[in-house]
Structure formats: structure tokens, C-alpha cells
Amino acid sequence: MSVFTSLDAINRIIQTHNPFSRHFVVKTQQIWANELPDVPSINGHASKAVLDAVKEIEEENVSTLGIAFLASKGRGKTHILGRIRQSLRTNGNGVFIYLSEYGNLSAVKHHFLQEVVVSLRKPGHQEVMQCQEVVTDFLNHALGRNFSPHQLIALFPKVVAKDPQIIERIITKAFQLNIGVEDPYIIKALLWTLSAVHAPYALNWLSGKEITEYQANVLGLPEISESKQEIYAFNKAMQIINFISHYKTPVICFDELDGAECGDEDIVSVSGFTRAMVVSSLGKDVYNNLRRGVLVTAMYPSTWQQEVRALPGNEAVEDRIAELEIDLRPLNENTVIELVRCWLDRFYEIHNLEPPYELYPFDEDELREIGKEKPTVREFLKLCAEKFPAVPVDPVEEVSEVYEEIKSNLEVLLDNNQTISNSLAFAFHNLIGQTLESVTIESVDREVSPKYKSNGYIQLRIIGKENNEKVKIGVGVIQNCHGRTVGAGVKRLTWYKDFDLTRGCLVRSKAIPEPPRWRTANTFLRKLTKEMGGEWASFQADDIRPLIALREVFKSLEDYDLDQDAFDQFLERHKDIITENPLIREILSDPSGEVPVEVNDEDEEFERAVAEVSESDSDDAEELLLAG
């Protein structure tokens, strides 16, 4: 616009919208969503170092490089990783692999594998999954062709339906090309990601998650129970990454290493080690086994000095993950201006406004004075939020807005037992002292003893009173796809004496196939529900989504500059999020003894989808068949 909008119009928007509010911390979903306002000059030396390393690797001047970003809280470590991700996506010259949560430290290698595959699901340069782009490059290499990912995604399922042996022929070519993958099933699973129908199950298999016997047979992949995945996880992850490295440069980023938790004292390999110690050691192993690529770690200088450098054999870790140490710089009087200009440009563009001057309503001299204090990015954005002349929002309403924002952007993975059980435990903890479905909740146990017997199958125990009688409900979230695993979990839910239970509750949204399939699971399910007064509580994604979002808000209060009192008041105003939740009520309600009606039969859905592909016209796939 050539003429600025009237000040009245601008001020009306400003009074009700604060562009700086609650945007102090970069969240994982923002890294992938390409929604970060960015000022390339702020710590541009750090992102440039990584992108230069990618170029050096492409030009075969080096093969691997370990880079450590060392900076105190709020300096913008995660933001820089987001900038690197967007550059790789724009230029198409790398695959971005990002980790910021590490789960149980004793199973960190399994979690690493899962997060590698989560990253490969994210869109790449050509707006398909990163793994699909790499597989396209591989097929073009193997077949001497020049297909786009979109062409292959359209053709590949039809090709396989017409000639199933083509996959075996491609695998043979892969080994002739010597691309560093020892396990032919990894290549097979990666090829299946080119089929929209087969991709979800192939990706689950690649990430070490269980798939059903039927799914494994259709995909031609071996069944491996989840309990054995930790043994193979690291080797599998490195085979996948090294396969990628033949076609694109993997950039592997370990963020958020500054956690207080320590490894399980019962596991010798991690006992007493902090998150930073465990993940840095993992980073060393990744580096040692990496064919080509860049390894990036981000942590506080204090974490680096006091924890990583305290590791036994710390020199070996430092020499690999920190060949290059990069300190991030605070803002200065020039970069604060660029930062405010960037945020306000976006704000005015969204609202279709033209301000009287680009920094309105701030005063440039005042901002520069703040910049002389060399604040961190986070400190400065908080200050901007306080100084922006918007009408203050009710703190409880702020919590409500954050809750809705998180809930709407939440990707609910229904096969994640830990996430689901954590959200249930959080919800029940907030019901302590209340009565629901005739049960007065007194406490919630997160560790069910004896731990070695539970083996993680029973994740919480709800203790209370029902009609003046003591009630102790053991809850096992078991979304696994393998009959033996589900059977082992349901069996433990019947061990009332061992775990001091009055009833067991299986939480599961998926069907349990009738005998003769899954015979053990059915035997113990019948014992649980028909003989021992236990329950099978099913649920839908929309039942668990609000509970996961609620826990995420609580975990992020500091990030969003919200306080505990406001959260507690929000819960009081919106107690129905928990009290009216169908799954919460089902767990507490008097068991019906019946099998739930609304459960998802993955095999039936998969079978229908596969049949539709097989029946589709495959004439247009002849060219690819001939090429194979």
C-alpha cells in the first residue's frame, strides 16, 4: 500500500492482538511447519556453519562433521535449527532429522530410531515425505530413469499389484549398487513408502513399532516384537541414515539436551547419567557409524562443561560431536531493530494494514537502548510483549488460547502407549479428591510395583473408594499390533494379587482378533472381563486429544510465560475437559464385561485398501515395469 491505514484502524487491531504474546519459545511443530519469522543475520554464523558443512560434504571435501551449539537459555538454539530445516527443504540438498524428546533414557536407541522415521515422514523439497524423495533418487539411480516422486507414488502400487516380484528385483539391484544397507527388508520397507496404502505400516515397521501378522505378510516383512526392538534399533537407524547419505546429506540434530532426568538406576548402562550424557554418548556412536552427514547438538554451556565433559572418555565424545563449537551471540542494538521489524511486518501483513512507520508503535531509539543491554532473543520478545500497547488478556483466557492452539495442532499417534498413559495419569491426578462414576479418587500411582513383573504393561494405578469399598484400578494402555505382546499385557492385568489391584482395565482402541488368531490375548481377555470383573475401555482419537493437549499446556507453562494459578483456574472453569471425557468415565465406570463395539480393525481397513489398489487399472505402469 502507498498510503498508511488510519491510526484508529491500526490501534483497534493493536488493542486486541499482541503479536509478541506467548511466542517466546520455538516448539517442535513450528520447526516442521515453516511458520517461524526469521532474521537471518541473528546468529547467521551458526546456521551458515551447518549449511557450509552440507556443501563441503556434497563436494566430497569432508564426509562427516560434528557441530555443537552452546548457548544459554533463550539465545535461539532451536530457532536456528528451524532455519537450517527450512533451508534444506527449500534447496532440496539434505534430509533433516530432528530430536528434542528422548523418552525413557534406557531405551534411547529405540527412541532415536523412532524419531528418525518421524522426521522422514515430514515433507521435503517436493512436498512429499522426505523418505519418498530419497527412495525416488534411489530408484532413478537403480533403474537409470528420471521419475519425480509424484510419478512414482502414482505408479508404484499399480506396478507391484501387477508384478509383485519387481520389489525383489529392485532389492537385487540395490545390493549390486553397494549402498550400504545390510538388511534387504529395510530397502523393501522404504520402497513401500511410495504406496499411500502401504506407507503407514511400512513406516511403523521401520521405526520398530509392531505390525500385525497380516500386515507383515502383505508387505513381505518379518514380525519382530517391540520388546526386542532395542537390540536392533541403533543398527537399523544407521542403515536407514547411511542409505539416505548416498543421495542427500543427512543433518541430524539433537536439541533440548538440558534435562534434569537421569537414567533408570536398574539399567547399568545409563544409571546415574543425565539426559545430556546419554544423548551425547549416543551422538558419538552415531558419528562413528555415519557414512556421510552433519551431526548438530544444542545445549547450555553449563550442561556441556558440567555433564558432557564429566563423561568417562569424554575426549572421544567431544572430538566427534563438537569438532566445531559455536557460541550463540545475544542481540545488539541493530539486531533488535531487525527482529521487531520482522515480527511487525508479518503482523501488519496478516491484518492487511500499513503502519505510519515500520516499527510502529515502538520507538526506535528506545529499542536500540534495550539492544545495548545485549538481551537474549527470549528476554527481548517478552519485553516487546509487555511494551506492546495491547489491552492485557485475562491470564485464564491466555491459557485457554494456548490449549486450543496446541489441541488443534496436535498429531495424535494412537500407537504411542506412553503418551496416552501419561495424559491419562495427568488427568486422574487432577481428579484427586473428586467423585466420578461413584469412584472417589484418592491417589494415582505412576510406578506399579513390582516393576520387573509389570514390565511397563501397567502404566498407572488409580486408588480410591467406590461405595465405601477400597478400589485399586490397574490401567494398561496396550495399543500394540502383535498378538503375543497384547497377550502378555492383558495377562498382567489379571494379576490382581501381584499388583494389589481390585480390577484391571485394558485401554485399547484397536480390535483383538478372534481365536484361533491371538489365542493367548483372547484367553486372558476373557478371564479379565468375564471372570475377574475387569474392563476393556476403548476410545477414539478425539477422546484422548484433549487430555494430551492439557498435559502439553501444563508442561509448557514456562515456555508461554503462563503461571500455575492461571492454569488451575482454567481447569476449574473447564473441568468438563476431564470429567466429561468418555475414556476417563469408561475407566472408572462399573465394568460391563462386554467387548467394545467401536474398535478399529486395522487389518480389515488395510485389506480393503490393498484390494482397491490391486483392482485399479495398471496399464499406465507398463513403462516403469519395462524399466525394472
Written overview of the protein:
- With 628 residues, the protein is of the alpha/beta class.
- Helix 3 packs parallel to helix 4 (77-91), helix 8 (166-177) crosses helix 9 and helix 19 (395-409) packs across helix 25 (541-555).
- The longest helix is centred in the middle third of the chain and has 16 residues, at 229-244.
- The protein is globular.
Write the layout of secondary structure elements.
Blueprint: H1 7-16, H2 28-33, H3 44-58, E1 64-70, H4 77-91, E2 94-99, H5 108-121, H6 130-143, H7 149-162, H8 166-177, H9 184-192, H10 199-206, H11 213-219, H12 229-244, E3 249-254, H13 275-289, E4 293-299, H14 301-306, H15 314-321, E5 324-327, H16 335-350, H17 364-371, H18 377-387, H19 395-409, H20 417-429, E6 435-436, E7 439-445, H21 451-454, E8 460-466, E9 469-477, H22 483-493, H23 496-499, E10 503-507, H24 519-531, E11 535-537, H25 541-555, H26 564-573, H27 576-579, H28 582-588, H29 602-615, H30 622-627
